[in-house]
Amino acid sequence: MTGATSDPPTDPAARCAGPPTDPAEESLAELFWAVARRLRHQSRRTLEPWDVNPGHARALSVLTRHGAMRLSALAEHLHIAPRSTTEVVDGLEERGLVARRPDPADRRATLVAPTDEGTRVGAAIRTARSAEAERFFGHLSPTDHAELIRILRTLRD
């Protein structure tokens, strides 16, 4: 039935008008996506000093935690396609944060590893993101913080 209150708005301006004014009208999904969007924007701002995007930061984090690895292993850690991993590593390599080198166990394969600068930047990003998370979640009570972690882990798994 067209025009019914349960139908999505057909007017593009109405669809993009923002959150409802009555908090009771907000769905769980809408609230979740609003928080996720806020976190994404905050994360991008946090990463600006290093000229890396969140995908670059995730890859650099994996490499600084686990050390040199093949692109296929990095793709598995990041849960992205190998082609996308190549693009991420290319971006990090252009910035001097990672380097490719032959795999001593298999001359046909290539390893990617953080450079000294990549290790330094990775540590700085971890520190900045930790401070960012504290600002974002710091107003939660310890009980709410623990409950949110429990809920998010349940949804993730």
TrEMBL record:
It comes from the Bacteria. Pfam families: MarR. InterPro entries: HTH_MarR-typ, MarR/SlyA-like, WH-like_DNA-bd_sf, WH_DNA-bd_sf. Residues 1-25 are annotated as: Disordered. Coiled coil: none annotated. Signal peptide: none annotated. Residues 25-157 form the HTH marR-type domain. This is MarR family transcriptional regulator. It comes from Micromonospora humida.
